[in-house]
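Structural prep section.
Before we set up the soaks we want a predicted structure of the protein with fe (ii) ion in place, mainly to decide which crystallisation condition to try first. Input record follows.
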Amino acid sequence: MHDVFDAIQEDHRRVKDLFAQLAADGGRPDVAVELVYTLVAHETAEQELIHPLTRQADEELAEERLAEETKAESALAELEDLEIGGSQLKAKLVALRDDVVAHADHEENEEHPRLRAAVPANQLQRLAGMYELARKAAPTHPHPGGPQSATGNLVLGPMSGIADQVRDAARSAMRDG
Ligand SMILES: [Fe+2]
Ligand SMILES: [Fe+2]
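Run finished without errors. Recording the tokens verbatim:
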């Protein structure tokens, strides 16, 4: 049965694939945007739906994952004012790859097996639906009238806006589900 960790692991594969595309094809702007929005939405959804369960099962494990995510969030926040399609954005994103991949591997190898053993399977299946609703709340491309750089090119804009949309969707899915 498809559970929330299958959905999360799909996202991890997508993120790794986007990093590979970014490194390979000269950094198409839509790849960089999808990567950033996916990362912000993914980590926010995990924090809403998964890490509270991790904390109940193993406080230290939850703290380790959150510390990695806090570090990634501040790195992503530094990209907010960078031009989409600019070389700086690509270079800064590529520099994040090793930490992001290591974080995903820690989740898959430690957190997911721990929670699959601790949480009933039907709860993890229900969480998959909530996770997907939350993830879909994130934008896939920048708003055409969104924030611009001094030279008039679109920038990524505030990560907190994306996180808020995903957090609201996760909370309302939990209320309904
Ligand atoms: Fe995470
Ligand atoms: Fe993750």
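Observations: The chain has a mean pLDDT of 93.
Flagged for discussion at group meeting.
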